[in-house]
Design goal:
alpha+beta; four-stranded mixed beta sheet; two-stranded antiparallel sheet
């Protein structure tokens, strides 16, 4: 039964998210942010807030919409597919952690931009515009108001990036589970990677149909077909593991940690393969500023690192499964 319900959620959610992003974040609009040097689109974020995106996973009792992380993953996937230059992932990940705190209303109404991080020592997306940073610090989730964060040069120009280390004073400990916070961040960024790769695959297939070499579309050549087929296999595997992890988050399933670590490690690695093939099929034009492929590649590079890279999540997954084996439990 839940499979049927999940399918309906995905179809309806993608349609609703697509309506907003097609109109507000076409690639021409993304270029309008990237070409001048990067940053973000405040009008786009305001439209997301108006549609209730910031409140999506926040419980109704706290003023939110009260949906779950399956719906959150749908939004994150759409954001990745459109390269939306807005801090919505930070709002989604921070929402649960800020329940009961004075900052939640500002997040829900869009007056407060929240930057999130799994490592306070790393550069944080949208930190220069953020009025609050929420980060995992060991076994705690903490929040602080940043001061004077300068934008740093970054590969991905669809988002601001800044260093925002934990200060010595003015840090608030949140009543949030650090493990769940890490898992929500990992799943959100894995879902965005899925959207990035799915759209990169679409662009690549379209180009292979149009680009003619030796009087034939290059998509008719076996080597190009194999590349595109391999991309599709990776993307569909990403889709399966992302929505398994999102469902585990929403259902508080005991396999939540395993699912989140699997999703982030697989999506981080698979996205490298997918985008490398996208560049290969596009040939020389794929490396030019005028082509859109590089925008997806650069956004993916940062997402691959946020909330843990593939290596760290594989190590985490191995530790979880080793403990289960030592306890005589099944790992299947």
């Amino acid at each position: 039964r839940w499979r049927f319900d999940l399918r309906g959620v995905l179809v309806a959610g993608r349609y609703a998210a697509g309506l907003l992003l097609v109109g507000r974040a076409p690639r021409a609009a993304v270029r309008g942010v990237v070409d001048p040097g990067g940053g973000g689109d405040r009008d786009l974020y305001a439209a997301m807030v108006e549609q209730g995106w910031t409140a999506l996973v926040v419980p109704e009792a706290a003023g939110g919409v009260g949906l779950g992380w399956v719906e959150g993953a749908v939004l994150a996937e759409a954001v990745g597919a459109h390269l939306a230059p807005a801090p919505i992932l930070g709002a989604l990940v921070a929402g649960e952690a800020l329940v009961g705190k004075q900052w939640l209303d500002g997040l829900l109404e869009g007056s407060l931009v929240v930057a999130v991080s799994d490592d306070a020592r790393a550069p944080v997306p949208f930190a220069p515009s953020a009025g609050l940073v929420v980060a995992r610090d060991g076994d705690e989730v903490v929040a602080w108001v940043p001061g004077g964060v300068d934008a740093q040069p970054a590969m991905d120009l669809t988002r601001e990036l800044g260093w925002c280390p934990r200060p010595d004073d003015g840090v608030t400990r949140l009543d949030a589970d650090a493990g769940r916070f890490r898992d929500t961040g990992a799943v959100a960024h894995a879902a965005e990677l899925l959207g990035i790769c799915d759209r990169a695959l679409q662009l690549t297939v379209e180009y292979a149909k149009e680009r003619v070499q030796f009087d034939k579309p290059i998509g008719s050549f076996q080597a190009v077909k194999h590349r595109c087929a391999d991309m599709l296999v990776d993307v569909e595997a990403m889709r399966s593991v992302v929505y398994w992890a999102a469902w585990c988050l929403a259902a508080e399933d005991p396999d939540r940690e395993v699912a989140a670590a699997t999703a982030k490690s697989w999506c981080a690695d698979a996205s490298r393969r997918v985008l490398a093939s996208a560049l290969q099929v596009h040939g020389g034009i794929g490396f030019t500023w005028e082509a859109d492929v590089h925008l997806f590649l650069k956004r993916a590079h940062l997402d691959q690192l946020e909330f843990g890279d593939a290596v760290s999540h594989r190590a985490r997954l191995g530790a979880i499964l080793r403990d289960r084996v030592a306890a005589g439990e099944s790992i299947i």
